[in-house]
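Please discuss these two lines.
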Amino acid sequence: MFPIADEFRQRLQSLGGVLVALCLLLALAYEGTGRPALVQVAGLGILVAILCFSPGISKSRLIFLAVGAALLVWSILTRADWMTGVLTALHRGGIVIAVFTALAALRMAAMASPAIISCGRFLAEQKPGRRYLALSFGGHLFGLVLLYGSISLLGTLAAASAARAADPQIAEIRLRRMLLAIQRGFAATLCWSPIAFSMVIATTLVPGATWSAAALPAFASGILFMAVGWALDTIFKPRTPPRPAAGDADPGGWMQHLAPLFYLFALVLVGVAVLHHLTGIEVIGVVMGIVPLIALLWMLLQEARPANEGEARETGMAVTRLGRRVGRFVITELPGYRAEILLLFMAAFIGSLGSFLLVPLMQDYGPDLGSIHPALILFAVVCIIPLAGQLGMNPLLSVSLLIPLLPSPDVLGISPVAMVLAVTGGWSLCGTTSPFTASVLLIGNLGKTSARRVGLVWNSAHAAILIPVLAVWAILNG
């Protein structure tokens, strides 16, 4: 990469942020008008944004661009309808980044809320007897609205709490258990949350699938995911010498501390469900519309709050400050997510274009998957996604490649819900075992150990039990 002046690089980063924000607006316009060209233009804009971000992205991430370019050339050389495949890939990548941008806005608002920070601290300082359940439950609720930010927030607070232990061995054990509780609570959201990429992609790729149909059994998958984690922690909890019980973190203050999180959870999840039911708009479109609106209103309330008690609220100044904050989000915050934006967009692009090229080859030369018992296919889906994660494949990429190659649920004679459960279950397991996923990397960093140890040692028993459990649950819903 040629040297670029700092000022010019900063301008490129800001331009990239503007293009990412524009992607969300174009995707919303697409949901309102039904014109695919809008979101395809958004996808092209993201490609330009990635080029703007490229001076600040590691070379290992830029390999995704090379793979995408190779697939593009392959499609041009081998398919007369290559443009259809490319436009579909741009469409899918644009939608993924639009959803990511909406969730990033909500995360920015939440991370600036004293009430949310206080809630996280309250959970991290619970007594040992209920700390795992508190952090697992808290990690789940935080994960529903903050995504990976829940691990950063709760994990940092947990590390600070564990560091206060007098015995280093106890501190190490406590930190590991706390981090696993947070990680598994977060990963359980991938089983069912309508704003998680796992559910968004699954309901997009599986013919006939809807979130409303899959919500309850998928929520049960999340409960199973956390319950197995709690059971393993209880059974294999290290026995340490008796010690004075830790003081309770504000006894009786559960509802007081958790209320803001419950309100946010209800506003986002119930709002998405109600609007989806009333308008008939797909869940992904509702998420792109309602989540940024909630973030804007929340930030407006934050800016309208008086700096000192007794001061009057100035709505006009609050709106001005909100405008500046949105500007900072676009030109500063969004470029800070450049590595994630490249990974998510290119995973969706490569998965979509790759399946476009592979499906005809599978039909001509591959085995007849329709003759395989559907239970075996569901079990294989749950297994393949986390196994592909061990090879460095983001679940967004592996799922985008895998699902189009499989017969539709109608052909297999199963409910679309069963396939959705298999996909989201495997995706959740990938989120706790793959050393290349953000959640495992974050836990390794906070726990001062390698990501591979977190995925293959800390979470091995958890995954080994859940693979058959989640597969059987998917089969039972077929």
In short: The mean pLDDT is 89. The chain has 21 helices and no strands. The CA atoms of residues 124 and 158 lie 5 Å apart.
